[in-house]
Amino acid sequence: MAGRNRELQTQLMSLYDIGLGDKAQDKLFTQYTINTVYASYPAAQHRVRQYTHLLKLLQREVDEWAMKVEKASHIMPDYKPVWLLQTL
Predict the structure, then answer these.
(1) Its pTM surpasses 0.70
(2) Closest CA to 84 of 60, 72, 64
(3) Backbone φ, ψ for residue 18 (5° rounding)
(4) Distance between CA 86 and CA 81 in Å, rounded?
(5) Alpha-helical regions (H) of the chain
(6) What is the percent of the chain where pLDDT is above 70?
(7) pLDDT digits (tens, 9 = 90+) for 28-58
(8) What is the torsional sign of CA 11, 14, 18, 20?
(9) CA separation (Å) from 30 to 5, 6, 43, 45?
């Protein structure tokens, strides 16, 4: 596992032209990586809140349509909509 982590770090550092022998650049790279993780976490939390809100809105719409279908089925109980017959 440690070998794989070091390999990933080496690959990332090579993308930014950071040499492995330079301890100052290793430390700077590590600091930037940690800063990125800390900055990304609140953004991810915000996206989760947005998606949760969207799911609530969509579920509300599904529930409203289910009520409409239920009401419509009581108006003409023997009637089967064309789209329902095609999907069976």
Answers:
(1) no
(2) 72
(3) -105, 125
(4) 9
(5) 2-15, 23-75, 82-87
(6) 70
(7) 888 888 888 888 999 999 999 999 999 999 9
(8) positive
(9) 12, 12, 20, 23
Q: How many CB atoms lie within 10 A of CB 28?
A: 13
Q: At what angle do helices 2-15 and 23-75 cross, to 10 degrees?
A: 100
Residue given tokens 């609530």 in the structure block: 56
**20 three-class SS:** coil
Both structure tokens of 11: 């690959």
For 80, phi and psi rounded to 5 degrees?
Answer: -115, 120
Phi/psi for 5 (5° steps) reads: -65, -40
Please give the structure tokens belonging to residue 48: 């989760």
Structure tokens at 55: 């799911």
Can you read off the two tokens belonging to residue 7?
């390999």
In the block, tokens 């070091």 appear at 6
**d(C-alpha 52, C-alpha 46), whole Å:** 10
